[in-house]
Amino acid sequence: MLRDAGPRSALCRAAQAVDRLVLLGDVLELRHGPMHQALAQAEPVLRELGAALSGKTEVILVPGNHDYRLLAPWLERRALAPEPLPLGSESEIRSESGEPLAELARWLEPAAVRVAYPGVWLRDDVYATHGHYSDRHHTVPILERLGAGAMARIAREPAGGPWRAEDYETTLRPMY
After folding, report:
1. Among 51, 79, 84, 172, which residue carries the largest CB count within 10 Å?
2. Are 117 and 159 in the same domain?
3. Is residue 47 classed as helix, strand or coil in its secondary structure?
4. By the 8 A CB rule, do 142 and 132 touch?
């Protein structure tokens, strides 16, 4: 999308007709360079997408493993809370002015942007997630899976493996 105007134009044309746009993670590539560089590359693309959306469009961003660092300020605030609420299947992420998630939301204006993690309930019977928690269960020896397996041994998961969002976070967060 950053480099090829064809798919980006097709996305923007299609986005003009939607009431809700769900971005399921890896909106930015933050594992291969500094965040400021990734943000600078993504800004014109997200502004172009935002210009195609109406003020009635809802954009839901669900961070994934490649843009997990977008969650860092919220995760730090959550860790400092006297009694943080359980993460669950969908937590609303609130960003503060100047944080990267707030910048992304500003670039997607006039759409209303909300951030959910680790997934979002789109309807009572439809749940959407980036899917990076599944790296803990895959058997194909790809990099993410191998790293998740190694971290499971280090993090000492509960007997039977992870079953709560917090268990997945304990295992996978150090990798991200």
Report:
1. 172
2. no
3. helix
4. no
Structural domain of 152: 131-176
What is the DSSP track for 3-44? S-HHHHHHHHHHHTT-SEEEE-S-SS--SSS-HHHHHHHHHH
Residues 88 and 167 reside in one and the same domain: no
Residues 100 and 72 both lie in one domain: yes
Dihedral, CA atoms, 44, 130, 171, 125, nearest 10 degrees? 140
CA distance 136 to 169: 11
> Long-range contacts made by residues 148-151, C-beta under 8 angstroms, separation at least 24?
148/172, 148/175, 151/175
- Residue 2 CA to residue 14 CA, distance in Å, equals 17
pLDDT along the chain (176 residues), means of 10: 82 94 92 90 94 95 94 92 90 95 96 96 96 84 82 85 88 85
CA dihedral (42, 79, 119, 113) in degrees, to 10, reads -50
Number of domains in the chain: 2
Please tell me the distance from the alpha carbon of residue 20 to that of residue 69, in angstroms, as a whole number: 24
Report angle CA 169, 78, 91 to the nearest 5 degrees. Answer: 65
The runs of H, that is alpha helices, within 86-142 are 100-107
pLDDT digits (tens, 9 = 90+) for 116-139: 999 999 999 999 999 888 888 877
